[in-house]
Every structure is written in C-alpha cells, then in structure tokens.
Design brief:
2 domains; 9 strands; Immunoglobulin-like; 31% helix; alpha+beta; nine-stranded antiparallel sheet; Type VI secretion system-associated protein TagO; T6SS-assoc_VCA0118
Length: 203
Amino acid sequence: MGLCCAFPVLANEAETLKRLAQCRQTQSSLERLDCYDSAWQDSTPHAIPAGQRSASWLRATEQEKGRETHSTQFITKESSVEDIPQVVLTTPALGIAPPRPILMLSCIDNITRLQLILHRPIAGRELPISIETDKTRFQSRWFSRDSGYILEASRGLQGIREIQQLFGATQMTIKLQSGEPRWTFNIQNIEQDIKSFRQACHW
C-alpha cells in the first residue's frame, strides 16, 4: 500500500481512537455503549439486516408495528427496568410510502432522546439540519447513529430545548441543509402527550 493510501487510513484510526477515549468518560452505561457503537461506525453508510440494527431502531419499528389505525398520533409505551421508568413515543412520517421513517422521543436510563429512525442509511457523522413547525424554525446539528439508520439530536439540555420548541405546533419538518431529503411528522398535542415522558426524565 502506498503512502497516499495509508495516510487516510491512519487518520481514520486516530479519529476512532480519540472518540473511544472520549467514550470512557461517559458515566451512564447505556450511553457509553451507544458512544462506543457510534465510534466504530464507518462514516459511509452501508446496509445492515434489520435484525442486526441497534436497540433504538428495533424499539421504534416494533412499537410502530402495533399501530392499529391510520392515525398518526403518537403511540406511547411506558415500562420500567429495575424500577427506572422508561417512556417511548413514536409517530410515522407523513406522505411517504411504507416503510416510513419514524420520529421517536424516548426516556431510557433517565436520558432524553429525540431520534429520527430511517429505513435507508444516510451518510455523515454530524449533520446540519433545520427544523420547521407552524410555530417556529431553527437550525441544529444531529448525529448519525447505527451506521446511518438513526439521526439523533444532542442529549441533555440541548435536546430538551429542541423538544420544547415543538410545543404548540401541529407538524414538524426535519430537513438536511441541502433541503433534501425532508421528513414531516404530526406532532399535534405533543406537549400533552409527553407529560409522562417528562416526568420519567425529570424535566
């Protein structure tokens, strides 16, 4: 292998090692595992059999399989693990043929997550996006997880602030900086629907 080919490989390995070192500082065990998974991902998306995708991807798709009507209201599932409450809300994208992308809000291990679940992987690790509702518009940067099958907002206070900006709106559209693709979701009554979610994640 020539030097011209070796340098990019070494650079990628150095970046991966740096990210793995950062993961060790993560206190939550589940969040640390997610961090390790993300660090090992290639920035180029590749097909992964559905059964081998992440717990978050499987959680969202399995929950949507239980949708019994053509309603696009949030489905809410509440459970607990070792007395720690878990709340998951999902809703499918509008105007897209099945299998539809899914918007998922979850409180797992006391961590607030806002995620876009995809059936076709998307390239990139950190993606500039815009979010538009009938009430507001704002810019953000979301992160690629699960080899491009999940886009995820920042966790913690930043993610909470993004969710709060959705209150009072009836629809939201997520789109990449390039304008395409874009995904639109029904979020009517979101403030009411996530009451148990907020209680579980203590905000």
